[in-house]
User: What shape does this take?
Amino acid sequence: MSKDEDDGWGPASPSGGGGWLDAARRGLNYADETAGDAIRALTNVATFGNMDRLAGAGEGWRTGKGYDAGVDEQIRLSEEARTRSPVASVVGDVAGAVALPGFGAARLAAAGGGGLAARAGAYGLTGAATGAAQGAGSTYTGNAADYLKNAGIGAALGAPLGAAGGAFFGRGPATPRAAAPTSEQLHDAAQANYGALARSRAAYEPGAFTRAADDVENRLLADRYHWRDSPATWRAIEEMRAGGNPGQLNTGANALIDPAAIDWVRKGINRIPQGEARATDRASGEIVKDALDDFIIRPPPGAVLPGADNAREAARATARALEARGNWAGHKRVEAIDDLIENAGNTTGSTYSGLNLQNELRKGVRTFIRQKGGESAASKAGFSQPEQAALRDYTRGTNVTNMLRTASNTLGGGGGIAGPVAGLAFGTGGGLASQYFKDDPTTGAAIGALAPFLGRGLRRVGNRRADAEIAGLRDMIARRTPMFDYRQMMNPGTVPGAGSPRAAKAMRDVIATEIVKQQGPKRLEIDTDDWE
Assistant: This one.
């Protein structure tokens, strides 16, 4: 192919003479016209064929020829663009399909149970809606029967494409039937578990409890905790040596250690005041609380007093302690995510009018998982490796959230000076609106002023997705708890995946492109010889 031949992307680049400046100018004009053809296709698909109508209204008003004449002119320009740049136009078609709404396919599939039939039905209905809208929107005859006919053709094409895609490619991961517990529910469950543990009749040998106190004291000293900085912690250790609660029947020569005595020591640690001044005492106290749990969960050899009845009671105490520890640890993990969400909402609400939630959430999670000295706040809080990996993935964002964020930033959706700048950029020069109104910059600028509003809309959609994604992470973390295991035991099984947004987008791309191809001949017939 010579440089003068049409390569399908756009108009053939002229090879007239002249110096390098003329050649550069011709190249820029060529690129500008090809880009304009792609943008024309993109905006028509994204608006279900209504951009030609909008542009035609402006054209008719500007020239004084009226709406119909303006629309006819825009249709002629669109047909010329598609003939001149067929490949670029198809690229615009597919890009425009990304902006089409999903009509709630995944939500509808979930309401139907998420199975194959539910996905086929939900995606089939949304495919039909997309096809009908595209078919009717791409019709310009002015005859109501034609609009209905082409909407029917579009629906007939979109329904089977959507149904097939949703049924066979739209399945998302299965989710448990049982609901993930909240932080408050886990807190209450842990308190109930510890209450049940305190009522246990298990009995332990006092000497073993004293040795456990010595062991935890040695650990604290090795970790550079000092009694001057942790007075409540050291008081708890002395209480362990004294046999726990002096009000219980566990003192004297025949003293016994029971879970109530152990819980009495724990309650003293729980009463360490919050605040920076007692942070060290609380940190060392958590180590003692872990040692108290370990004494019941994994009693040292000889610690459980002999007897079959006591052995059974000790086993029950072990199970209750495991439940209590698991639910309490789950409560702290879920609470940490809730705090991240609340802090992000407070920050963006006070400084960005709620527009920058996605960015603040990512920043909060990034700080939470950042390692220092081989550890992070997440690892110290007991988050598992898979949970930490999921949090890292969240900070990178998904393809959809990143696309929404980029588009919103481009359109000035973040507020401030970016909005007016985007309005000027899209309404003048090589902006989207100016591609339609090359001879009427005033109208182009007016339409370009809508860019910041579209950007804000995309920003809010991205924020909702980011919020939903971190809520999903919070639920995943809450499922690693005894409370959720109990719920799952009472309500076993899983719910089939209701469909993925990625599959929905892929179906919209296919449907929109197919409708554009099918509806091309259905446009208003125009005798282009009249303009020659």
